[in-house]
Design brief:
Blueprint lengths: L2 H13 L1 H9 L1 H5 L6 H9 L2 H6 L4 H10 L4 H9 L1
């Protein structure tokens, strides 16, 4: 599993405005630039927060990622607890 690459992608989207802009325009293209498993890539493209968490996305990186997308706290908590 490439948990490091998954967290790196999320961190890049969180912290780099150019990466963020590219990501929201074409998630698959940005994901292709990271050494992700097929399952991680699919979760990123589908924006499946619960799956990302289960695959090892760190909460302190994942929550800012969801805040950028305006995901309410109750929805985030439900996703990671499912």
């Amino acid at each position: 599993m490439s948990t490091y690459a998954l967290n790196k992608l999320l961190r890049e989207v969180n912290r780099n405005p150019q990466t963020r802009e590219k990501f929201f325009a074409d998630r698959a293209a940005v994901a292709a630039g990271f050494d992700l498993t097929d399952e991680e890539r699919e979760a990123i493209i589908a924006n499946d927060t619960g799956k990302l968490y289960k695959l090892g996305a760190h909460g302190l990186i994942l929550r800012p990622f969801t805040l950028i997308q305006q995901m309410p706290e109750p929805d985030y908590l439900a996703a990671i607890r499912s």
